[in-house]
Amino acid sequence: MKYFAAIVFVIFAAAGLSVMGQADADKEAIKRTALNYAEGWYEGNADKMESALSPDLAKRIVRTNDKGQSGLGQMTALSLVQGTRGGSGKQTPAAEQQKDVTILDVLGGAATVKLEMRDWVDYMHIGKFNGKWVIINVLWEMKPKKDEKKN
User: Fold this and answer.
1) Secondary structure class of 11 (helix, strand, coil)
2) Which of 43, 55, 41 is nearest to 140 (CA)?
């Protein structure tokens, strides 16, 4: 009986390590997805950017005008790839190319990630789609300029 219990313990321990190893691999892939997005932007590398995106990506920002009226600004995967190809991100000096990735949560094939860039913060929903982690949704906000007060 002790022999049987030892075998069962070893099997469950090995299964647990396998799951932990997969979780670590998923976290690395999630981080790489966010970094491909950031690096693609800064490098003007549209292919790298596109590799990180679901074709159905929705990137949104809430904008409020001087009268206090809010509206939703939207970008698609195509518009983001085209903007990257245009090279706007390449204007950011290398020393200022912030790309801090924080994985906030992962459950199965869904992850929530915060990506802090030089001028804005992206809150991403990244999903495992056909075995590959891709960015599906982004809600983003511009950082206050250094001379503006934070709310």
Assistant:
1) helix
2) 41
For residue 29, which phi and psi values (nearest 5 degrees)? Answer: -65, -40
Give the range of the structural domain holding residue 110, as residue numbers without chain letter: 2-142
Q: Report whether 62 contacts 72 (CB < 8 A).
A: yes
CA atoms in the 13 A half-sphere facing the CB of 88: 8
Q: How confident is the model at residue 14 (pLDDT cuts 50, 70, 90)?
A: very low
The answer to whether 138 touches 60, Cβ cutoff 8 Å, is yes
Tell me, what CATH number does 132's domain have? 3.10.450.50
- 151 is a domain residue: no
Q: Note if the pTM is more than 0.70.
A: yes
Residue showing tokens 């706007």: 88
Helix, strand, coil share (%) of the chain residues, nearest 5: 40, 40, 20
* Assigned domain for 148 exists: no
How many C-beta neighbours within 10 Å does residue 89 have? 21
* pLDDT per residue as tens digits for the range 110-124: 999 999 999 999 999
